[in-house]
Amino acid sequence: MKIEYSDENVTAEIEVVRATVRMGLERTRMISSIEDDPDADAMFLFTRKISYPSLVIASPTGTVKVGGSTLTWPPTFDQFFDLPEELANRWFEAVQKLNPHWFQLPEIDEKKVSDASSA
């Protein structure tokens, strides 16, 4: 799936693919290597530890130009963080559509939780 974006300062073409086992392992390694920041808020941490690794791993090729300069691929986290929100949202939606299992929360058995807390 290819996503395209263009505004007065940024143009982008990004290929998003369904993850392979190798990509899943690379994503897990990338997430594990990112240190927690106790001073960062929850949304920043989610973006840094889940969104960014998922997006770059599921996107083997892409071109993003900012102000006429082409970013290296994949963009660094700081470069990604400075991209237009609309581009990031389209990119996230494409990755989530092809790889929904990366974004599912684990199911919690409420009965087990209740039983454990009352024991």
Sum this structure up briefly.
This protein is α+β, with helices and mostly antiparallel strands.
From the spread of the alpha carbons, the general shape counts as globular
Measured on Cα atoms, how large is the radius of gyration?
17 Å
DSSP helical segment count: 5
Please tell me the overall pLDDT: 90
- Tell how many strands the DSSP assignment holds: 4
Helix proportion: 40-55%
What does the model show?
The protein is built from 5 helices and 4 strands, in the order ββααββααα. The chain is of the alpha+beta class. It starts with a strand and ends with a helix. The longest helix has 16 residues, at 42-57. The protein has helices at 21-33, 42-57, 77-81, 85-98, 110-118, and strands spanning 2-6, 10-15, 61-66, 69-70.
Layout of secondary structure:
Elements lengths: L1 E5 L3 E6 L5 H13 L8 H16 L3 E6 L2 E2 L6 H5 L3 H14 L11 H9 L1
Antiparallel strand pairs: 1-2, 2-3, 3-4
Helix pairs in contact: 1-2
Features:
alpha+beta, 119 residues, single chain, four-stranded antiparallel β-sheet
